[in-house]
Write a structure and sequence with these properties.
The complex is a heterodimer of chains A (about 375) and B (about 300). Chain A has about 375 residues and is of the alpha+beta class. Chain A has twelve helices and eight strands. In chain A, a hairpin with an 8-residue loop joins strand 6 and strand 7. Chain B has a domain of about 130 residues: Butyryl-CoA Dehydrogenase, subunit A, domain 3, CATH 1.20.140.10. Chain B has nine helices and nine strands. The chains are: A alpha+beta (about 375), B alpha+beta (about 300). At the A-B interface, helix 9, helix 10 and helix 12 of A face helix 6, helix 7 and helix 8 of B.
């Protein structure tokens, strides 16, 4: 057992940290530091910087045009990135549809879509949830009926983050209603400019409109936009969810935020900060523990759900601490205490999305504990 | 390279611990004899001084195992802390060097004890060398054949123990480095012992929920209980990660070793307490009884504390 990273990995970390911190525009950093949602322009401008280093699709293997980082480098990249007040990259293209495309897509699909994701030229959104299919995603009812060389898609998607800005949507649809729900699902890529698509914004409790309803009314999607075989969509979607969970611990950002709050505290919140510091340390080393298992050739699988559960709980606890410190502050608030209320409201989403924490616990009970 | 997996020496140690766990020995004497036979007591001592050179990586494996076995052996007091203290002193102190040699050979059994608020120490009645730490582990009073007569004897975990006042002596000032290493080790092994007890209490509870049927199905089929079992499992994983990280930091002489050690103990403290309460609750009525072993693990968690405190 050894806790030290190799000299090569430490050098990689220093290089990423140095390059990213010198490239981050101050106005974008100020948006994040003051707990505000970045604008589309800010996100795209920052992602152009990442793309120029080929660090946008940081987790992609070299054979698909990514930087080909080892799992350890990927982890260190996240540590360096998360320590900055930089917008998190939009995940839908990079960690969601990208890996599905290079794992299950045809050569033609890979050539068509992957470079545009890497180079920040396509904005993707995710068409999974529906009004009647949230945690029970397999019960989705949007249908795709084959008509000549196209599917005709009808239905409604919801909670679709940034659909209003998206060029493309990856979508789970029912192509067979006669088999058990999971078996009749296919994975389609839909151009958001196709006639029949209506995007309606949903105002959320924090006053923002980052999520939408997407209505699909006789939307024609060419068959060549289906990934893999008909009826295989569910399998792909499940694989993809595991891709996410390491990223979803958010430990580096939580460390950044807790450290900033600690620097402002004059003693009244010391006990809470200390308790959160210990919880966060445990999360950080649990993540390293699972990374080490992966490096040793193991597959931590659903054990990574623990990172999502604990990571989101801790991020929310820090947002509550920020809120209480902001309320307690007299005089003009320092940047990191600004917009504490709206960000606390916004971050309620963390334990709901990406497989709610209740679903994560169901999965762990079944697969890790075998009950 | 960052790596939580066991190396060959650590794996060998772990295997001997697993074999011992199957032997079902319960007497303190048997545990101590096995500890000597396997050389667990010298796991932390450097190879130059005749030990295995495992830093704290080996000792946490031992402590975790003994915690899970409810071993009566006081591993920190009787083995790990004497080894660290004597090895730390021995370069400049011939008396400590001699004691270390005898300890490694198994012919001397020193114990480390810390002074309480009334400047007293508790010692086993059979002790022939007591290393008493005072002033928060910064000074050492060396007590050969300590005068134990006339003191009241109490039995702790089947061992005759006496509490005596410390002699009125200034003692030997320990280096900051040595004090820090003692404090770090005390916290990490206390956390590791607790981890072992937590893992056993959780395993028992999971097993119980699988086999106990109510309303025509096993308790483990109820979602409300499944989620609580998952949280217990995560508590074990979190504690394990911090305990191993703290051990590695200490072994590598990293500057964050003490911070990780106190964090490991704090996290094991909170999570262990909660896990113990859940273990009893999920067992239901049987969990309240003395015949159910789950209470033994809960009490183990409450009983074992770091010998030396942090400043």
């Amino acid at each position: 057992m050894n806790l030290d990273f190799s000299p090569e990995d430490r050098a990689f970390f220093a290089r990423v940290k140095d390059r990213l911190s010198s490239a981050l525009p101050e106005d974008i950093a100020a948006t994040i530091r003051t707990n505000q949602p970045p604008s589309k322009e800010e996100m795209l401008r920052w992602q152009d910087v990442l793309a120029a280093e080929n660090w946008l699709a940081a987790g992609w293997p070299a054979e698909h045009g990514g930087p080909g980082l080892t799992p350890t480098q990927r982890y260190l990249f996240e540590q360096a990135y998360g320590a900055l007040y930089a917008p998190p990259p939009v995940q839908f293209g990079i960690t969601m549809v990208g890996p599905i495309l290079y794992t299950y897509g045809s050569d033609e699909q890979k050539q068509r879509f992957l470079p545009r994701i890497r180079e920040n030229r396509t904005w993707w959104c995710q068409g999974y949830s529906e009004p009647g299919a949230g945690s029970d995603l397999a019960s989705l009812r949007t249908t795709a009926v084959l008509d000549g060389d196209s599917y005709v898609v009808n239905g409604q998607k919801t909670w679709t983050t940034w659909a209003q800005w998206a060029d493309w949507m990856f979508c789970l649809v029912k192509t067979d209603l006669t088999v058990k729900p999971q078996a009749g699902i296919s994975f389609l890529l839909i151009d958001m400019k196709t006639p029949g698509i209506t995007v309606r914004p949903i105002r959320t409790i924090d006053g923002d409109t980052e999520i939408n309803e997407v209505f699909l009314d006789n939307v024609r999607v060419p068959v060549e936009n289906r990934i893999g075989g008909e009826g295989q969509g569910w399998t792909y979607a499940k694989v993809l969810l595991e891709h996410e969970r390491f990223i979803m611990s958010g430990a580096a950002r939580s460390r950044r935020d807790l450290t900033a709050l600690q620097a402002l505290d004059q003693g009244r919140f010391a006990a809470r900060i200390e308790a959160l510091d210990t919880e966060l340390l445990a999360l950080e080393y649990l993540e390293l523990r699972l990374l080490s298992a992966m490096n040793a050739g193991g597959n931590p699988g659903p054990r990574t759900s623990a990172l999502k559960i604990r990571g989101t709980e801790i991020t929310q606890a820090i947002s509550k601490l920020r809120l209480d410190m902001a309320r307690d502050w007299s005089g003009e608030k320092p940047e990191v205490l600004q917009n504490a209320e709206s960000s606390w409201l916004n971050l309620r989403k963390l334990t709901i999305w990406g497989g709610s924490n209740e679903i994560q616990r169901n999965v762990m009970a079944k697969v890790v504990l075998g009950i | 390279m960052m790596d939580f997996e066991l190396n060959d020496t650590e794996r060998m140690l772990s295997d001997t611990l697993d074999r011992f766990a199957l032997s079902a020995a319960t007497e303190t004497g048997a545990h101590w004899q096995h500890c000597l036979d396997m050389g667990w007591h010298i796991a932390s001592v450097s190879e130059e001084l005749g030990g295995f050179g495992l830093g704290l990586n080996g000792p946490v494996l031992v402590a975790r195992s003994l915690g899970g076995l409810l071993s009566p052996l006081d591993w920190a007091r009787d083995a790990l802390l004497p080894a660290i203290l004597l090895a730390g002193l021995s370069p400049d102190d011939p008396r400590a060097a001699q004691a270390l040699d005898d300890f490694l050979a198994g012919t001397l059994k020193p114990v480390v004890a810390a002074a309480d608020a009334e400047n007293r120490v508790s010692l086993p009645k059979t002790v022939n060398l007591a290393l008493a730490l005072t002033d928060g582990g910064t000074r050492l009073i060396w007590m050969e054949q300590p005068e134990l007569t006339g003191a009241e004897t109490i039995s702790v975990a089947g061992e005759e123990t006496v509490s005596i006042p410390l002699p009125d002596a200034p003692g030997l000032a320990l280096s900051k480095d040595l004090t820090d290493r003692l404090r770090t080790a005390a916290h990490v092994v206390a956390a590791a012992d607790r981890l072992g007890a937590m893992e056993k209490a959780f395993a028992m509870t999971l097993d119980y929920c699988r086999t106990r049927h109510q309303f025509g199905r096993p308790l483990s089929g109820f979602q409300a209980l499944q989620h609580r079992l998952v949280d217990m499992s995560i508590a074990c994983d979190e504690t394990e990660a911090l305990v191993l990280a703290a051990a590695m930091a200490a072994t590598g002489d990293r500057p964050d070793a003490m911070r990780l050690a106190t964090a490991a103990w704090a996290r094991a403290g909170d999570l262990g307490q909660r896990l113990g309460e859940e273990a009893i609750q999920l067992h239901g009525g049987i969990g309240m009884t003395e015949e159910c072993e789950v209470g033994c693990y809960v009490k183990r968690m409450m009983a074992r504390q770091p010998i030396v405190s942090t400043p």
